[in-house]
Amino acid sequence: MEGTRFTFNWSPATADQGTTITDYHVQVCEREDLRWVLSPNFDKLTSLTPSRGKPEWTVPFTGLLNPDTTYYWRVRARDSRGVWGSWSQRFSFRCAAPGVPLNLRAAPDPEKGTVEITWEDNPQGRKPVRYKVHGSDEKGFTARDTDHVVRMGHGFCDTMEEYKARKQGEPFFGDVKTPANFAAETRERRLAVVGPALAFPNANRAFYRVVAVDEKGNDSGPSDFVEFPRPFIFTKPPAIARVGRPYRYEAAAIASIGHLTCRAGYNAAFWGREKPKWVLETGPPWLKLEGSHLTGTPGDGDAGANEVTLNVTSEKGGHAQQKFVVVVEK
Questions:
Q1: Cα four-point dihedral sign 168, 171, 176, 177
Q2: Which letter does DSSP use for residue 219 in this model?
């Protein structure tokens, strides 16, 4: 089979007179004796899938099967009386695709505000010819090239009071349509994903995954995600300020929005979203901090070099610091 997402097809079953075929049951296993299914994804009633009413079933996602692995499958039919027929004969197949990229690592450089990630090819499967990198602030995110739905429960909550107060129809409540998290494509086994000069979509995110692509365009499954210490400051401040003109620096740090979890029973939400807190430790009197924005207008007597120290912390104990010099010119 080319790729790891394809459609199983079989000849329609024949029903007894006065009955019709109403369902098919498909199983996929690694064991030749078909004793245990591979996972719940591969133990399917087609009536509960988009293939309802058809003698076929499509693997729901790319990457659920491994390349260079022998799998076995079978199918049986059920009629309108609810009677199941016998299982079909056993069939086997193997997938041709690249293996999932391995050993993702992050190399952060706090002084430059950059992070480069690297990875290795999987020895299993076809050799990749390129890689797709995906980034998100959602922990455990699924790599997606297109818009998709993220189940968010009651959305972003810190307390049970907030959870109970949130209602259907509010932002981030329930199943939320979310843009693609594709970031960039590369032929190298490395990519700078964080930095003040990066302009591609989903740069400067908290988590990254990599998908390998072979010469025939088949994707691997997504890798494990890689992350780095947070908060992480990735913006670069203006180095020059002018006397009598407003100075502004919008500092930004990477933070995670968490993921769907439950608290105090089955109360599903994105609990504990990281909220960086900024403090101006040192700086000239004319410079003030508002949230994460440094603003101010230097006067005639402020010309010269001004040392600035900006700190950011998270509720989970993370800390980052940015030291820089602002030169005030007339």
A1: positive
A2: B
Domain-embedded: residue 22 = yes
Q: What percent of the chain has pLDDT over 90?
A: 95
Q: DSSP string covering 205-243, please?
A: -SEEEEEEE-TT--B-PPPPPB---SSEE-----SEEET
Give yes or no: residues 57 and 31 share one domain: yes
Quote the CA–CA distance of 65 and 211 in Å, as a whole number. 14
Residue 330 has pLDDT above 90, yes or no: no
Q: Give the amino acid at 189.
A: R
Is the C-alpha dihedral spanning 301, 305, 307, 310 positive or negative? positive
Which tokens hold the place of 87?
């299982």
Range of the domain at 40: 7-94
pTM (two decimals): 0.91
Can you give the CATH number for the domain in which 66 is found? 2.60.40.10
What residue type is assigned to position 203 of the chain?
Answer: A
Residue 37 is given by DSSP the state -
Look at residue 207 and tell me if it is in a domain. yes
What does the mean pLDDT of the chain come to?
95
Helix (H) or strand (E) holding 133: strand 130-136
Task: Give the model confidence (pLDDT) of 171-222 as tens digits.
Answer: 999 999 999 999 999 999 999 999 999 999 999 999 999 999 999 999 999 9
> Is 241 found in the same domain as 224?
no
- pLDDT confidence of residue 290: 95
Return the structure tokens found at 204. Answer: 């400067």
Q: Give pLDDT, residue 315.
A: 84
What's the average model confidence in pLDDT over 55-69?
Answer: 95
DSSP for 140-197, please give it.
TPPP-SS-EEEE-TT-EESSHHHHHH--TTSTT-SEEEE---EEEEESSSEEEEE-TT
Q: Do both 222 and 197 map to the same domain?
A: yes
